[in-house]
Structures are given as C-alpha cells and as structure tokens.
User: Fold this.
Amino acid sequence: MFEIQQMGEQKVKIVGEKPTAN
Assistant:
C-alpha cells in the first residue's frame, strides 16, 4: 500500500501548494 500513501502525500502537497485550486 505504498502507492496509496504516495498519492495521498502528493495530493496534500498539491493542495498545500495551491489551496485556491481546490
């Protein structure tokens, strides 16, 4: 289940970098 963890981290990074995009 490393892919899910990585995807979650990437999603958080994107959301953190572009909170307005959400």
